[in-house]
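Allow me, if you will, to draw on your knowledge of protein folds for a short while. I have a record of one protein: its chain in single-letter code and its fold written as discrete structure tokens. The full record is reproduced below for your convenience:
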Amino acid sequence: MCKFPGGGGTRVHENHVHGGTRVTGTLFGYRKTRVNIAIQETPRSLPILVLELAIPTAKLLQDLGVGLVRIALECEKRPSERTTKIVDEPIWALYCNGKKSGYGVKRQPTEEDLVVMQMLHAVSMGAGVLPVTGGGGEGDLTYMRAHFERVIGSRDSETYYMMNPDGNSGPELSIFFVRV
């Protein structure tokens, strides 16, 4: 299991993580299917990263309702590749709050992803249910959008902290990318 420092150097100060850059993160998916995470430079830009995680959307939203959630995405170092950015790795082992939860996969945004991003372009942060036009029987398309602070620790580690809008108690969701 991954060990990550729990405190000290990267705590929130005035709703900002020291050394971080602000991005927009959107968690979305049908309640009964896997959750997707899209990272954008601004709410109106195209996603720079789209991940599909092997966690049901409803389960992740339930965990977020209870408290702090930490997601660790771990991949292996390959000595031949020194220039690959960690977020450009295609697949990671997925841990949610310390429990192995399958895999996370990077993918290109689909047309449906882009429709969701377009529907949410005016939303800087919030959560809700989007109207479904296809009616594929997959349940409600739920979303949660927030500001994230992106902190690059090294070429082998990068973290996204979801910032609490009221500035209290630090991040509610942390996503760690690590190459070991």
About this structure: DSSP finds two helices and ten strands in the chain. Residues 1-14 have pLDDT under 50 and may be disordered. The helical segments are 57-66, 111-119.
